[in-house]
Each structure stands twice: as structure tokens, then as C-alpha cells.
Amino acid sequence: MSHKSVSAHAGEISLTQLFLIFFKIGCISWGGYMALISVVRSEIVGKHRLLEDDDIMDGVALAMLLPGPVAVNVVAYVGDKIRGPLGGAVCAVAVILPSFLLMVGFAALYLSWGTMVVADKALAGVLPAIAAIILNAGLQMREKALQGPIDIAMAVIAAVLLLTVGGIWIVICIFAVAAVVGILRHQTADADTPAEETRHQPTFGRGSRAIALFLAMCIGLFLFLPQLNITSILVQLFSVFSGMSLLLFGGGYIFIPMIQEAVVNTHGWLTIEDFAASIALGQVTPGPILISATFIGYKVAGLAGAVIATIAIFMPPAALTILASHQLQRFRHLSRFKAAQAGIRTAVFGLIISAAVSLLIGIASEAPNLLAPASIFGLSCFILMYLKKGEIWTVLIAAGLGVLIF
User: Fold this and answer.
1) What InterPro entries does the entry give (predicted)?
2) Residue 338 CB-density burial (10 A; 0-12 exposed, 13-18 middle, 19+ buried)
3) The pTM is what?
């Protein structure tokens, strides 16, 4: 697929179409950030041909190096690449909306009846299917990511390190080494770059300054809210969640202890039982686990609180991702930058495969009988790789089997 054909497809799609695509993605993306990214890749690269695999892998690498929820940051990056900042905002809202609506419903039922409404059996069936979806996405990317034995070795090392050590610093080290290897292997002469391209690089314009000011406001509000003596619960909710979203790295599970410290111990908004319920419901809804912020906001200040908490946890890091992406465009004409990106994409491929393996290990460690999840995983791989059916059918079939088997 050529860059020219991709640009033509991207130029033709409307914001409404983008919204519907990502709303569908948000409805079926259980299983963590890499599951959502895998479905994004299937829809945007495979089905609609709006971007290339290189773009998705670049977005994953950038999002993993920045604070906030990785999956939504990647979605904002993808939307921005297709239709600019407004496209990024539309895609992020669309992918979060299904989880938001479900969480508001679950929160209302839980707070009224004192019980959680969870589909444990269906989720048990869906998780092996999600592992198959991630694995299939990784395999679809292998042609762009793996160009020879060195790339294969780098991908394997990246996957093993993430599985055995993990953590944001390991990710940073993996990307740094991969970038150096990429520069050593792929660098071409800067003189080959057209002079016209080097003269028209993005600058830190009015839009970028507005985003930077908004992000500075979020951090300032988070750090100095006690001194400001603001009593509005909605402002307090926005301050807590927006500040944490910009200060914490490593994805949703890294946020959980910090959110607990803030909403249970510091502010006393939730009991520990209510907080545990919010995390459990975040796991059984599609989309990112940080949708638990919606439950917390609803408990504290009703529907308005749910909206504010959801915006605060997702919007600032998504805006930061778009800002960083635009500034990185200044270097896209440099051969060293392109070579570093090529190396990092190889590492990203390894991280995607490691996510599928990690999920399978978790399923195996918790399942009393491996036959059922292994069968669902195998069937899901068959549906995706040989029947070439979409992720939505895979998830629905797996959920039905989970209800029947577990």
C-alpha cells in the first residue's frame, strides 16, 4: 500500500465516519491497551486503509514514552494523523464513549443495589480471544517490522525483557537501544531529502501554545489546589485526575495505587470496597481500565462528576500526545530520525507479541482447566487468520462460548 493511496483514503473520510469506526472499536476492545490497539490496527490499516502499519507502530512507541493511558493516546495520535487535532479528539471521544455509558449504568446499579453487575463468564471467554486478536495484529505487522535476522533478534529480546522485567524504564531502554541499532543499520544521506520538505516543517504555532498552556494549567491546578482554597467538587475531581494523568507513566495498572491514595485515603470520596468495585467494573467493560474514573466521578458528583472525571483522566495526555507528535514532525526529514524510527518499530513488534504471551500466561495461571481457554484461543485464531472474519465476530463468539462453558 503506497503513501499516496493512504493519503487519498484519509482525505475522503468524514469525522462522522471516523466517529462510527472508533465507536465500534470501543464496543469490542476488552483486554487492555494492546487489545484496543490491535483492533485499531485491523480497522484503520487492514479494513479502511487510512494509515500504514508504520504509523501505528510510531504511535505506540510515542504513547508508551508519554504519561497517561497508552491506548487512548494511540487513538488520539491515529485520529490526528488522519484528520488533524479535531480528528484526534473525535476518535478519542468515540472510543471511550461505549465504556463510559456502560460504566455509568453499572455505577448507578451498584450504588442503588449494593451489588456489582459483571459478566464474569463472558469475560472468561473473551480474554483468550483477545490474546488471539493481539497475536494476529502483531503477525500482520511483521513484514514492516522484521527485515532480517537482526530485526528478529531485537524483537525477541524486547519481548523477553518486557515479560521478565517490565516497567517504563525497560521500555525506554529498549527503545533507546533499538533506535541506535536502527541508525547504524538504516541511515541514508541527509542530502537525499528534498530541500522543499526541510523548509516546511511544523512550528510551535498558536494551537501548540494553547495545548501547552492547557497542560500547564492542569499541572498547576493539581500541585496548588490546596492553596487555592477551591471548594467545588467538580474542580477538585478535574484537578486530581488531570494531574495524575500527566504525572504517571506506564499505563492503567500503574495508576491504580495512586488513584486509591487520592480518592480513598486523601479525599475520602470512596470506601475501599467502592474503589475495588470501580476497578473490577473497569476490567469487565470494553476499553481502557482507567474508565474506573467514571465510576468514581459518578459516586462523588453524579453524572456531571462522571463526565468531568472521564475528561480529566483522558484528555490531557491525549492532548500531550498530539502536541508531541506535531513537534516530532520537525525531524521527519532527517535520515537519522527515520532510521531510529525503523529500529523502534522492530521493538514495538516485540512488545505487541509479548502482550499476547503475557495475557495467555495470565489466563493459564488462573484457569482450573486449560482445555476451555485453549480451545477458545485456537478457534479465535482460526476465525481471524483463516476465515478472515472481523474482531467483532470473534469477540461475540468467544463471549457466547464463555457463558456456555465457564
Assistant:
1) Chr_Tranpt_l_chain (IPR014047), CHR_Transporter (IPR052518), Chromate_transpt (IPR003370)
2) middle
3) 0.78
Residue 116: what pLDDT?
Answer: 47
Residue entry with cell 461505549: 98
Please state, in angstroms and rounded to a whole number, the distance separating the CA atoms of residues 158 and 178: 9
Band of residue 388 on the pLDDT scale cut at 50, 70, 90 = confident
Contact indicator for 316, 242 with CB cutoff of 8 Å? yes
Q: pLDDT tens for residues 32-51? A: 677 888 889 999 998 899 99
What are the pLDDT digits (tens) for 329-369? 877 777 888 888 888 888 888 888 887 888 788 888 877 78
Higher-confidence residue of 155 and 331: namely 155
**What is the distance between the alpha carbons of residues 138 and 177, in angstroms, rounded to a whole number?**
21
Question: If you search the block for the grid coordinates 453487575, which residue do you land on?
Answer: 117
Instruction: Give, in order, the Cα–Cα distances in Å from 348 to each of 4, 33, 61, 77, 151.
Output: 25, 14, 7, 16, 11
Q: Which one, of 96, 95, 69, lies nearest residue 319 by Cα?
A: 69
Q: How many whole angstroms separate alpha carbon 38 and alpha carbon 340?
A: 23
CB atoms within 10 A of CB 292: 28
CB 232: neighbour CB atoms within 10 A? 10
DSSP 3-state of 313: helix
Question: In whole angstroms, what is the distance from residue 155 CA to residue 147 CA?
Answer: 11
Rounded-to-integer distance, Cα 303 and Cα 182, Å = 49
> Which of these, 239, 245, 231, lies nearest to 76 by C-alpha position?
245
In eight-state DSSP terms, residue 203 is -
Report the range out of 289-293, 376-380, 383-387 with the highest average pLDDT.
376-380
What average pLDDT does the segment 86-98 reach?
Answer: 95
Domain layout of the chain by residue ranges: 3-94, 97-191+249-305+319-405
Q: Concatenate the DSSP letters of all residues of 346-368 into one string.
A: HHHHHHHHHHHHHHHHHHHHH-S
